[in-house]
Design goal:
Helices cover 51% and strands 12% of the residues. It is an alpha/beta fold and 348 residues long. It has a seven-stranded parallel β-sheet. A two-stranded antiparallel ribbon has the order 2-3. The two termini are 36 Å apart. The model has no long low-confidence stretch (mean pLDDT 96).
Length: 348
């Protein structure tokens, strides 16, 4: 991990206000890029791509090479951890992930934390390769899924419209469900620590389904596990910033920032920029939150949205990003336009 502050992303994460905001995009490496599609066709499946370091490193570097983002983010998936724990995982083309669902404490006992991190060594090798290839001013972001979201996939066996199974388990057997969350807290800490040792400058936690929980459950299954992860990472790596993205948290964003100890908060497209400036930015750097559809549409809609976001959030510590991931049908040239818009000065 680099401790220098020449990297604009690290300067923003340290609380500095920059005239030109650092930027990167969630899912900046992926299907919208023709070079990604060409490389993807060389492997059997998505898991093989994630666990083949030369290919995963190349995919990580593709958007940075093309657009000059302020950061590369490791190309992997939040479900690599349950895969390494021993849960059966497949990715169906066009359908998303499918897992052998975890249903009770007996299924948790079959997961093997001791073997998980060695199984993730290919991902750590990808981090090392990318770190060696990046320019001095470009940061490298490692990441993991937050325990609640990863548990949701593990229990549901994939995505879900209402996450009924996982929410039911959490209500019916909170002690049993807590055992799964604790396993994921421990695994996530070790996984992120491995990425930091391998060269990640920053780590981000993705909690894509944080917004499906009511307030009390949000506190127990989202905030508390995140706080434990952040505190352990900070104890081991005091200089490593932590970003978190509790998508859909709504009015609970502020509580999340106050309780977890993160350095920056990623906000989704529903969060008003003025609210983020007043309630969140005094407490942490803010990252976000352009609508991915605006990027896909481009033109005047994109220019207006970028200008307004920079005018509102650019007065504080700010990292420009999307409010969710790049859409697969996004024209690559629209990201080029975005890069030029972000390089321009903003009138006071």
């Amino acid at each position: 991990m680099s401790t220098g502050r020449v990297k604009p992303l690290l300067r923003a994460l340290a609380g500095e206000v920059l005239a030109v905001p650092p930027w990167w995009l969630m899912r900046q490496a992926g299907r919208y890029l023709p070079e990604y599609r060409q490389l993807r066709g060389k492997v059997r499946d998505f898991i093989e791509l994630c666990l083949t370091p030369p290919l995963a490193a190349e995919v990580t570097l593709q958007p940075v090479r093309r657009y000059g983002m302020s950061a590369a983010i490791l190309f992997s998936d939040i479900l690599m951890l349950p895969h390494a724990l021993g849960q059966r995982l497949t990715f169906r083309e066009g359908e998303g992930p499918a897992l052998e669902a975890i249903e009770d404490r007996h299924a948790i006992a079959r997961l093997d934390l001791d073997r998980a991190i060695p199984r993730l060594e290919p991902v750590l090798e990808t981090v090392r390769r990318v770190n060696a290839a990046l320019a001095p001013q470009t940061a490298l972001i490692g990441f993991a899924g937050s325990p609640w979201t990863v548990a949701a996939y593990m229990v549901e066996g994939g995505g879900s419209k209402d996450f009924h199974r996982v929410r039911s388990w959490a209500y019916r057997d909170p002690a049993g469900f807590a055992a799964l969350i604790e396993l994921l807290v421990q695994g996530t800490v070790e996984y992120l620590a491995g990425q930091i040792r391998a060269g990640a400058d920053v780590v981000q936690l993705f909690d894509s389904w944080a917004g499906v929980l009511p307030e009390a459950a949000f506190g127990r299954w989202v905030v508390e596990p995140t706080q434990r992860i952040v505190s352990q990472i900070k104890r081991r790596f005091p200089d490593c910033p932590v970003i978190a993205f509790p998508r859909g948290a709504g009015f609970l964003y502020e509580r999340y920032v106050l309780k977890t100890g993160i350095d920056a908060i990623g906000i989704d497209t529903t969060v008003p920029a003025d609210y983020a400036r007043k309630a969140l930015q005094p407490r942490a750097a803010v990252q976000g939150n352009l609508d991915p559809v605006a990027l896909a549409v481009g033109g005047a809609a994109l220019e207006r949205a970028v200008r307004e976001m920079r005018h509102t959030l650019g007065r504080g510590p700010y990292i420009f990003n999307l409010g969710h991931g790049v859409l697969p049908h996004t024209p690559p040239e629209h990201v080029e336009v975005l890069s030029r818009l972000l390089a321009e000065p903003v009138a006071a």
